[in-house]
Specification:
mainly alpha; rod-shaped
Length: about 80
């Protein structure tokens, strides 16, 4: 009886953990897609264009608009990207 109760509690905890992980993953995925679209639009007007790679997508995905501004600032000053 006690083993089944422990397994049930662990299953509920795992389901809740997966829910929050997937919710945050979806949030990051949406921001990353929007960030790539905005980077492509910025690259139409910026010369030389910002390279779109895993690092820039992650910075924009986690940072949103401030992350995009950081990537653009670092690119324009020649420090990175």
């Amino acid at each position: 009886m006690i083993v089944e109760l422990i397994v049930l509690i662990l299953a509920i905890a795992l389901a809740v953990g997966l829910y929050y992980f997937m919710k945050n993953l979806l949030y990051l995925l949406v921001h990353a897609i929007v960030g790539v679209v905005v980077l492509v639009l910025v690259n139409l007007f910026l010369f030389p264009p910002v390279s779109i790679n895993l690092i820039t997508v992650l910075v924009v995905g986690f940072g949103g608009i401030p992350g995009l501004l950081i990537v653009l600032l670092l690119h324009l000053t020649g420090i990175a990207f």
